[in-house]
Structures are given as C-alpha cells and as structure tokens.
Amino acid sequence: MKIIVTVPAYNEQDTIGKVVDEIKEVMESNSYSYAVLVVDDGSKDGTAEIAKEHGAAVFSHPKNYGLAETFRTEVKKCLEMGADIIVHIDADTQYKAAEIPKLVKEIENGYDLVLGSRFRGRIESMPLVKRIGNIAFSRAISRITGLKISDAQTGFRAFTRDIAKKIQISSNHTYTQEQIIRAVREKFRIKEVPIYFAKRLDKSRLISNPFGYAVRAWINIIRIYRDYEPLKFFGTVGSAIFGFGVAIGLFLVYRHITIGLSGRHFGLMMLDVIILSLGFQILIFGFIADMMRK
Description:
10 helices
C-alpha cells in the first residue's frame, strides 16, 4: 500500500527540513512505499524551498487560508497521488515521526481512522489553557459521537483512502473534530493510540494570546453542538428562555392573586409574551434543524 505522509506548514522554515528528514528515515527503515507531501499555507519564509530541498513534494497556497482549507488541499492532493493510507503530522516537531508505524499498523489491522492521543501517552509540555481547551473539546466530541475520545484535537492521525474520499470537511475553522464526528456517523472504525508530545521549541502561533485562544475554543465547541446536535443546542437555549418566561408568568399570577395587577404591569406582561414566544420558536427551530440534519 502507498502511504502519503502529509505535513501542513505555515512559516516553519526552522523545523520543516528536520521533520521531512525524520519522516523519510522512519519510512525507509520500515520499507514502506511512501511519499512526503508538504502543503505550504502561504508561508512568507523559506518553508516551501527548504521542504523541496529535503525531498518533499510541495504544494503552496497563494495566501494563508488556515487549518481547514489546508487539510482539504492535503486530502485532495494525496488522493491524486494515489494514497492508500494518509498520515497527517504537524511541522513543529512536537509529534514524533518515529511513531508513524504505530498508526500505520492499526490501519493495517483494519481500522479506518487512527488518532495519536497525547492524553493517553506522554505530554512533555502543554500550556494550561490549551490543555483545558483540548479536554473540553474531547468531552464534547465524546458526547456527540457516543465514542470515548481522549484527544479530539490531535494533529497526528492516519486514515484510509475510503475516509479521504467519503468524508468531506465543510468547516472553515478546523478539521480535527469534524473528521471524527463524520467518521463515527459513517460507521468507520476508529482507534486511539498513545503517543509522545514534545515541548515546542519556539513560540506557538496558535496560542500567542491565551484569552483569545480560549474564546475561539469555546466558540468552536458551540459551533460543533449547533451543527451536529441542533436539538440539544437549540433545545437547551430555547428551554432556558422559555423557562425564564414561565417564571415571569408565575410571578405575575402571584401578584394578581395577592395584590392584583395594575397598568404598570402591562409592560412586563408584554415582555413575558415576547420571551415565551421566542423560547418556543427556538425549540421548534431545534426540532426542524434536527429533522433536516437526519
């Protein structure tokens, strides 16, 4: 089987050569039929040139499109290159190329998507805000899929040609969770293997602003629930709003029974009608969205 090891890269000239060399070394030592593909996401440094010098095939975006679009390009190019197995690994040296055979072995054992789990392996260093975000994402994905996932955010994964062809990533933000959710719903076999996660040697571009990273992480979790569990998402929001309206209504009933209502309560009554209507409409929208999703 032909294995394409694909590496997304954005301004990684300091590490891309080492990453490509390490991939080639482990692939050749295991006698794999392979190629290395670097997708340069509009880097402004020498990432693309260095990757070519070290023997990788390189495809460059004209500008920086982000993780999701880069992943779509990777999958498309890997299929064009005739990949039977695609291994995705990052360019910052935090994932170890030496562990690629662990993922490939499970694909050969019949699994369709194999995730390298940092939380089941060893984490040398991970900022607290990123660790909390990863755990929250993984719990959200586990609830949505009904499959226990310890590391839904991992950028080290292997998957089959069937996964690549049948699962189209639609998100504009990230590929990691969507691929897992869609793979579960398409009844593909998924397995996690423990991996080593090294300390990043330079400054992370992902979490240069911890507060901004935390905000983006929670926004993405909300998007996941909205897109993949609309009944739960809109049901929760609608129920909360409707419940608040009911509470106001009970207060008005109590006031009417005890001291009576006056003209000054008219505004509150109108507000309560609006709140109850809004909550009910959101609940109905949740049911409609859930039916359309199915």
